[in-house]
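Researcher: I'm preparing a figure for a lab meeting and need a structural model of a single chain. I don't have an experimental structure, so a prediction will have to do for now. The sequence is pasted below. Please return the structure as tokens so I can convert it later.
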Amino acid sequence: MRNGLIIYVVVLCSLVLVAKAAADVEKKLGDVTNGSRAVPVHLINLYNEQGYTKEDKIFPDDDPLLPFSMRQTCGFCHSYDIISTGWHFNAADPNISPGRPGQPWLFVDLRTATQIPLSYRPWPGTFTPQQLGLTHSKFIQRFGRHIPGGGAGELDSDEPEEILRQDVSGKLEINCMSCHDADPAHDQAEYTIQVAHQNFRWAAVATCSFASVSGSARDMSDTYDPFMPEPPLDPKKIPPTITYSKNAFDNENKVFFDIVRKVPAERCYFCHSNVDVDNNGSQKWLSDEDVHLAAGLTCVDCHRNGLEHNIIRGYEDEAFISTNPLAAASSCEGCHTTGRLGAPVPRHPGIPLVHFDKLTCTACHSGPWPQQKTIRTKTSRAHALGTLAAKKSPEALPHIIYPVFARQENGKIAPHKLFWPTFWAWLKAGKVTPLDLETVKQTAGKIIGKQRPPTSGDWLAISRKQIIEVLKSLSSRKSAKDKPVYICGGSLYRLDDKGNLITAEHDAARPYLWPIAHNVRPAAQSLGVRRCEDCHSTDAPFYFGEVAIDSPLVSQKDAVKRMVDFQHLDARFVRIFAFSFVFRPWLKVVALASCAVLAAVLLLYALKALACVTKVLVGKKD
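Model: Understood. Here is the structure written out token by token.
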């Protein structure tokens, strides 16, 4: 309790300091509104990354022709450094509160039977990219397809061999156009192509309708200078080249940007889409929209932010750590108890109040109904949805399972998505540290990777014998000072002193879960709308649904856990309590009948008492 209070005070103080620092920055033209709700016309000059002086201004006849910089072009009127502190861009900042655990970046390598959650935020159960041997640059190359720039994309590399490469490829600046470009020809998928070519400096520009980019910085030598380019020695290799549309520049060499202040949901969908791979979930026309979107709201009606882009995430306790003044009012309870944005005020007649202490609003209203078996889903960030790299196979890794009704840190049960970590690691003093990728490829890759990966992108089936081979290979390495282990299917596998494979439990083997809030169902489709038995029956999926254990190990195929295992409840107690609901209709009949008998008895005695009183009164009158 005391440690939690100290952490809260430290976080609060850091937020105050950040807010004060932001307030001390001199405000620019676009930082302070003039009161008009109209969006200003953005007919502006383009500037390259070197600044926004006259010499840095871009003209259509420049040689070489450079991509415009978001930092300099947008930063001419808007404080880029303040914007960069926003939630979408600040993951790599250790001074920012991580908030409630969210979806991590899921690294997958088929040939080494690996899938592991990564995050720059210190969420429990995740690992940093550096622990896996991923530098900032390698992380961006892997996941930059769904990163709106900033953060790790603008950090300087510490690796000597990457410093020169960073001069060639440039930095991945915040892509303001990802959200604010209202042009229907905006192509966010092109962003992913440019990131794959290491064209970080050109990636944001390539999404705009008035520019196109060809060539690849990845094919250029470390000494290539994009500001003074020379033809590459190999004519087959094309340097990154930008072409602006002829009609993009007006007579003053300014360019028009169709900027929107209220970001449409379609912009959010590129990074925040989900598709179920079971129950025909891949057919869009078979599923309904979130009830809020169907009612005419958009994502940013609830997930709001100011200049600092401290966007509201919308969970119940966010107001305790967020400086956004609308954080408390933008949770489920905040909107629906005040009628904000026309939200109906819920009555919940007949529902015992204990439900609101034990369950989140999303437990009854969000995601699919709990079924006897969980289903798998794909997400944009995990499966590269919306890009050419997306695999449409339902078996493609990583495997994300939901809905899992699990208990949160605040004690309430909520629906979650779940991911089973699978990776090779060192075990020292009870602590698990993932092996770096190169070591894994040199050992596990040579043993497991002999098999041909399935075209579906599913697991390579491995055996206990193969795990033993890999662990022995790791143990024999001269650099191996710690015990090698394999995390898989919720268990830790290691060798004993005799070389036998043994299984143990470990915190690092626990599944990673993150709560979900969408899609929200209307009240008529909420859990429990039919009867209490939606949850309180002896086989109700809410407690006794099967949660699949995802694992490449053949012996773990079809293994499952029960939903109640994630709720920290005794299954026997839950079943006995649920069994009582079988007799509750009888109990109600007996209770009503007993009340009727008692009422009749009381009425009889009341009549007798009335007769006695009447006799007394009559006697006195005579």
